[in-house]
Amino acid sequence: MMMLQFTDPAKLKTKKIVFEDIFTALDPGTLEQLKELSSKRSVIEEKINDTSSITEAIAREMYGGLTSQSEQDLHKLKQYLPLLENFIFHVDAICSNRQVMYWVSNLKIQWTTAVGGSLSFLNLLGPKYYQVGNIRFELGMILFLYGATLRDRACEISTEALVQSATLFREAAGVYLYLSEEVLPTLQSIDAGKKPPESTSSVASVMSLICLAEAQVVTIRRAEERKAAVGLLAKLHHGVSDFLSEAARILYSGSGEVKDVSPRLFGYISSLKCVHELRSQRYLAKDLQASGQVGVSIGILREALNHAREINPGEVTWRLAIKEEMDAVSELLEKLERENEFVWHEKVPSVDQLPLPRGNKIVSAIRYQPLRYERQLIFKI
């Protein structure tokens, strides 16, 4: 079973920032560090804005032979983040100074949204940029992009390096968890309409849960390859559904933070959830069949198909993935119904008499540990 693809979270864009044009350095060392900060951000800007003129061959040489675009992007982000953390540390130390507050507002930190619902009318006006006069808005958006890029890399290798892929998904979940708990609460006072959904704790929490679900999907694939017991596989697949149910509850909670979210994000969650619920119910039916409960197995499969028919995602590949699982469930159901008609003659229980599915969640986030280059910055204030 191939993983469903949802690459939208990494499709962010930003406007250029030149730190040394806004912040006045008191000494040459500080000026050089501000220039380095701008330079490291510039390569990220060029990549996500599709304005880079660097060829693939040159990029490979620049990044130590890395051929994967997502690996190159992770390298760029890892170079920028410790410099940004250090910059924020020194700005925080003098944040009450009016001159510093003026500088921060004049950085004009601007980002688009990749998971927001209110995109510009038919894209004729170009992407909408949100401007927030808070340096932690920059940190939040960069970390969101970092988590999305880790996730892209995990998807990229999910068919060939299962353990590494699961680890990257868990790392991405940890980045989003850190965002939700440590960074984005500082932006909570800003009106939801004036900032992108990516800068809200609720959406970061949703992304963390999605990454955990995806980490479990990869982990299950390894268990399937090793011919794990069908009863266990049923619980593991339903564990994926449990992660996604929690994500859906946040999105549907009615919170002011999550009013403006892309239908594609909702669609991805419901599609991935549907695929793994179907597979969970199929394994559960096989497990019950083996213990002689054919009637219960039939009831479970019928209910699984009824529920899946209610899901109709817009993405063609998501619909195909659901159809593939529905076909497998239908095939098993037809087989059991024939056997029951001619051999077992068991009564099929009503829906409220069917056993409730149970899920096992066996993956957890790898906590993100921010790195800060401890370099002194002295501003002329």
From TrEMBL:
<feature type="domain" description="BRO1">
    <location>
        <begin position="1"/>
        <end position="381"/>
    </location>
</feature>
<dbReference type="InterPro" id="IPR038499">
    <property type="entry name" value="BRO1_sf"/>
</dbReference>
<protein>
    <recommendedName>
        <fullName>BRO1 domain-containing protein</fullName>
    </recommendedName>
</protein>
<comment type="similarity">
    <text>Belongs to the BROX family.</text>
</comment>
<dbReference type="Pfam" id="PF03097">
    <property type="entry name" value="BRO1"/>
</dbReference>
<dbReference type="InterPro" id="IPR004328">
    <property type="entry name" value="BRO1_dom"/>
</dbReference>
<dbReference type="InterPro" id="IPR038898">
    <property type="entry name" value="BROX"/>
</dbReference>
